[in-house]
Amino acid sequence: MTTLTKEDPNPDVIDIDRVTIRFAGDSGDGMQLAGTQFTRTSAVFGNDISTVPDIPAEIRAPQGSLPGVSAFQMSFSSYDIYTPGDIPDVLVAMNPAALKVHLPDLPRGGILIVNEDEFNAGNLKKAGYTANPLDDGSLQAYRTFKVPIGTLNARALRIAASAPSKSTAPRTCLRSASCSGCTAVRWTPRSSTSMTASVAATLP
Question: pTM value?
Answer without folding.
Answer: 0.75
